[in-house]
Write a structure and sequence with these properties.
With about 120 residues, the chain is an all-beta fold. It contains no helices and 11 strands. The strands form 2 sheets. Strands 2, 4, 5, 6, 9, 10 and 11 form a 7-stranded mixed β-sheet that branches. Strands 1-3-8-7 form a 4-stranded antiparallel β-sheet, with no helix packed on it. Strand 5 and strand 6 form a beta hairpin.
């Protein structure tokens, strides 16, 4: 079994910064892409940023230039550095990872429990 545990959410004023972390633990042979999604009240969950095992990144248009995704493969951890935060960034942020628990297994997708980010105006 694989668990994703997020941390780093909280309340911040508009223009402020936060850094989210997500550590994967359990039976892990390999992790391909890792990413961050968010879901605001009344809205669908959307991709914020994603990073491949080769450090290729892609971002949702509204966060380009403000958010940076990175990963530490030795720690099975993905980060999301968020700067110049806006009230519209307020949402629950979820970590996502594509994991191969064993050499012989198929790829499986996992989600974290979510961490609240609230940006006040």
């Amino acid at each position: 079994q694989v668990q994703l545990v997020e941390s780093g959410g909280g309340l911040v004023q508009s223009g402020g910064s936060l850094r989210l972390s997500c550590a994967a633990s359990g039976t892990i042979f390999s992790i391909s892409h890792m990413g961050w999604y968010r879901q605001a009240p009344g809205k669908e969950r959307e991709l914020v940023a994603r990073i491949t095992s080769g450090d290729i990144t892609n971002y949702e248009d509204s966060v380009k230039g403000r958010f940076t995704i990175s990963r530490d493969n030795a720690k099975n951890t993905v980060y999301l550095q968020m700067t110049s935060l806006k009230p519209e960034d307020t949402a629950v942020y979820y970590c996502n990872a594509n994991v191969k628990p064993a050499d012989w297994s198929t790829w499986r997708n996992y989600w974290g429990q979510g961490t609240q980010v609230t940006v006040s105006s």
